[in-house]
Amino acid sequence: MDGIALEARGVDFSYYDGPVLEGIDLQLARGELVGLIGPNGAGKTTLLKVLSGLLPPRRGSVWLEGKELRRFSRRQVAQRIAVVPQEMSTPFNFTAWEVVMLGRTPHVRPLLGAGARDRAVVEEKMVLTGTLELAPRPFNELSGGEQQRVIIAMALAQEADILLLDEPTVHLDISHQVEVLELIRQLNRRQGITVLAIIHDLNLASLYFDRLLLLNDGRFVANGPPEEVLREERIRQVFRTAVQVQQHPTRRTPQVIILPLLAA
After folding, report:
1. How far is CA 148 from the centre of its chain?
2. Which architecture characterizes domain 1-80+160-230 according to CATH?
3. Closest alpha carbon to 199 in 164, 234, 238, 159
4. Cα separation of 143 and 152, whole Å?
5. What's the count of helices (H) and strands (E) in the chain, helices before strands?
6. Residue 29: enclosing H or E segment and its boundaries?
7. What DSSP state is assigned to residue 54?
8. Cys-Cys crosslink for 209: which of 35, 62, 218, 252, Cβ 3.0 to 4.6 Å?
9. Are 236 and 258 a contacting pair, CB within 8 Å?
10. What SS3 state is found at 95?
């Protein structure tokens, strides 16, 4: 890791019904693999939208590669930051190939359309994500795990150095959750992509991410490696759930066990 890829300085954000983010300070170093955790309504998705420039902060600023984000055009931001939404549907019967090709939009010159290099990049990213065999199939007919890998391929086709993911494992079964997270970690380790991902499952967050950010009521309450962030008392207070934290049987990472409210 060398230098800061993305930074938030004193960021506040509010919707019409009140504040969502307050005093957010965040630094993502180049090549980091970071998980963003917190209860529903904590402001996680809003934070990703602010970091990607989709929402302007009410106060504070976001910096990309040492330059204030608002000084970049949307096209320039899209060439540097790729966002993977929770889920995606297409209004037309797009094939998987056509969906991934959408990722080339920031690079395609107006009126000229996609060229040979764009097609080569799309093929490369579909091979990388194991989706090339899905290329001719309608996107909306793919399984949840297949769709998620295609969406990640689309984001990679932007050739951005920063990947922001909003719950990439949502609605997936266990095997597909592991498959997607293994892919994200490989992209980080082998391609050097900086990753910030919202993760709902605390145990998967602990297993797959080097650093965790715990957001609650629009503020960070913990920031560090999983063993420092996932403390029993902190989880009980933030998630209002009785838990026990133990070490994973084969990894030196914490695992969170939910305790029932009533004895069986």
Report:
1. 12
2. 3-Layer(aba) Sandwich (3.40)
3. 164
4. 14
5. 9, 12
6. strand 18-29
7. S
8. 35
9. no
10. strand
Q: Where are the alpha helices (DSSP H) in 65-143?
A: 74-78, 96-101, 116-128
Spell out the residues 6+ positions from residue 201 whose beta carbon is closer than 8 angstroms to its own: 169, 177
Q: If we measure between CA atoms, which residue out of 58, 160, 154 comes closest to residue 168?
A: 154
Q: How confident is the model at residue 264 (pLDDT cuts 50, 70, 90)?
A: very low
The predicted model scores a pTM of 0.92
Size of the chain in residues: 264
Question: Phi first, then psi: what are they for 17, rounded to 5°?
Answer: -100, 10
Q: Going by C-beta distance under 8 Å and a sequence separation of 6 or more, which residues neighbour residue 90? A: 99, 139, 140
Are 224 and 209 in contact, with CB atoms under 8 Å apart?
no
- Per-residue pLDDT reduced to its tens digit, 131-149: 999 999 999 999 888 999 9
What are 1's two structure tokens? 């890791």
User: Where are the chain's structural domains?
Assistant: 1-80+160-230, 92-159
Q: What is the pLDDT of residues 181-217, one digit of tens each?
A: 999 999 999 999 999 999 999 999 999 999 999 999 9
- Among candidate residues 211, 195, 205, 214, the one with its CA nearest the CA of residue 169: 205
101's CB contacts (< 8 A; 6+ apart) are 114, 118, 119, 122, 157
| E-only strand ranges, 30-78 | 33-37, 59-64, 67-68
